[in-house]
Each structure stands twice: as structure tokens, then as C-alpha cells.
Amino acid sequence: MDAAFTAEQDEIRRTLHELLAKHCGPQDVKSAVRTPVGHDGALWGRLAAELGLPGLALPEEYGGVGCTTAELVLACEETGRALLPSPLFATAVLAAPLIAALGTEAQKRALLPLIARGERTATLAVPGTGLALALGLTGANADGDWAGGGRAGGVQGRRMPDGTWRLYGEADQVLDGHSARLLLVAAHTGGFARSRALLFVVSAEAAGLRRTRRTTLDETRTQARVQLRDVEAELLGEDESVDVHGALGATGRTAAACLAAEAVGAAGEALERTVAYVKEREQFGRAIGSFQAVKHRLADLYVQVQAARSAAYYAAWDPGAGALALAQGLDALRAAASEAVQLHGGIGFTWEHEAHLYFKRAASDELLFGPVHRLRGHAAELAGLFDPAAPEVRA
């Protein structure tokens, strides 16, 4: 495998880095998350118009740029570095690939060009806390219980005599759920006899749809409670035989690689800010960065971040390694955020300091997409490491 990036890939990274460095500093982030939509709409429009970011990995025939997962991963590393509040992850990493994989030709031609141009944001709504499971990151998603399981709770889908579908239920942790113009809702259908989970397209203007923005630990990744009360929906795909679980699993592998890159970008930026601070802060007449104990801590952290970056880049070419790369990235971000808080001293422990933006992102991402030990455990199961029939490995 050639791990070197092409000139075009480096240009995408450089252009995005320069744009975000000018318009997405810590104070810009804090201002953006307090807007009604939870992000800077003008900046999102520039990212869509000038860089084609929402459609970066979509086919050109549907208005996209036609790039690969590698370019999307590089873009996510830069947005993670800036902790950019935006609909990018929910729209381009979760919703758009599912529409491209499962949608009918008419659905793809109607929805994907709008997404690629940034004119319509989208998200995936999964009931409860089952997003990581639905994406196949922390366990097998084949049983579909994460969509409702035929019991009270979750989202239930019912086919009406005229062939239309109606949804009833709620999802509590929907990324960008309060602002997305298009929702892909995972719902349980068929009762107990023909139990299955399907995806449905729901417009933000649908009657009976109620969306409420939630207060979250990490304001840069907004969440909402989505309630559906007899909401009319359109089945994503030709019929009920579409492979929803397979498409969600494939999307989950790509999403894990992008999340790993986001975590690595954030960890690298937290480390750089900490290194810059310890060079300036003085104690006993000298910069604290000159103390050997501080040097050792930052050197260990640098190695950890670089290892996580290598894992994320590998996952860009082989999304099958995404879950392990994500686990390593989350570990690195948590360590970098913790060191940033501690080495910034008394000011670093104040909730308002920028170091806590990284701390909150680390804690929130592990709650949403982990925890780390489950990411690694499921990857080990898939690799057959826990198979009792496997031959014993002797030292």
C-alpha cells in the first residue's frame, strides 16, 4: 500500500486548513454553537460552494466531487482540528452514503444533488442510544432491536392500506436533528412475525414531526430529540428486501474512519496548544516546558497522537480497520485533552477555557460511538480472536 497522499489530496487539506484557521477559532466556535442552528451557516455555505465539502465523496453523476473515503477522512481531520460545528458528519458521512447505497434512482437524483450543493442537510435518526450498534461499531446490528424491537419505545413503522408508510415513536440523540432538512429514520416494522428494521425518508416539514434541541456536553456536536406522531414517510429503497443492515455496516466503517481522523485532528491541535503554552508559562524563573517531567509527558503524548494518526490514515484506505482506528483516536484525544487541562494549570481547570472544548469532545464522542473497550471487543470478535475453535497460540 502506498501511504503517500496525492497532490490533490494535500491541496484539499491545505485549503480547508487555511479557511478554518481564519474563520473557526475557539471564540468563533463558541459563538457558532449558540446560534439557533448550532453552526455558522455562512461558513457552511462557503465550505459547500468553494470546496464542495458535502458532496466530496459522492459520485459526480449526482452532483458530487467524486473523491474517495481518503479525501473525506483528510477533510474530517481538519474539521476535527478546529472542532468545527457543522452538519458535515451527519450529512456527508452518515445520511448521503445510505441514500447512495439504498435509494432508488429517483430518490438519488432528487436528494443527492441538493445535499452535494449544501442546499439540504440530512441526518440519521436511530432510537435510544443505539447509533453505534446500528452502525455495527460495538456489536452486530443484524437483529434490528436497536430500532425498536417490536416493543414499546423506539420507532415503529406501519404500512397503510394505500401503500404509504406511517411512523410513530421517538429518537433521543439525533445528530443535528433539530436543523437537518431531511431525516433518515430507522424504524422497526413487521411486528414479531416479520420483524425487520428499515430506513425511511422524512421531510423536516412533515406533519406530526416535532424536534427539540437538547442540552449536550459537547455543544460542537448538536443533538436533538425527534418525536414522530403518525408521520408520513417514504421507504428508502425499492422495497422491504433492501439490505439495510449491510448498508449501515458499510456506512459505519467509513464513519469510524472519519471519526478517528476527527479525533486525531483535535488531539493534535490540543497538543500543539499545550506545547505553545508550556513554552510561555514560567515557574521558578524558567518556562515549565523546560522541566524534564513536562517534556516526558508531552513526548509520550506526541507518540500516542502520531500512532493514532497512522491508524486513521490506514483506515482511510481500509475502512474495515475503522473501529480500531476510532478506539485509538478516542484514546489519544482523551489523553491530549487531559494533559491540556492539567498543564494549563489553574486556568485550565476553568470550564470556560478552550481546553475544555477538546475535553468535552473526547467525552461526548466516546459516549456516542464507543466506549473504547466495546469498539475493540467487537473488532476482536469479528477477527475471530474469541473463537473457542481457533487454534491455541503458544509463546
From TrEMBL:
Keywords: FAD, Flavoprotein, Oxidoreductase
Flavoprotein listed as a keyword: yes
Coiled coil: none
Acyl-CoA dehydrogenase/oxidase N-terminal domain mapped to chain residues: 6-119
Residue ranges of every copy of the Acyl-CoA dehydrogenase/oxidase C-terminal domain listed in the record: 257-376
Organism superkingdom: Bacteria
Gene3D superfamilies for this protein: Acyl-CoA dehydrogenase/oxidase, N-terminal domain, Butyryl-CoA Dehydrogenase, subunit A, domain 2, Butyryl-CoA Dehydrogenase, subunit A, domain 3
Cofactor section: FAD
Similarity annotation: Belongs to the acyl-CoA dehydrogenase family.
Protein name, entry field: Acyl-CoA dehydrogenase
Gene name, Swiss-Prot/TrEMBL: acd
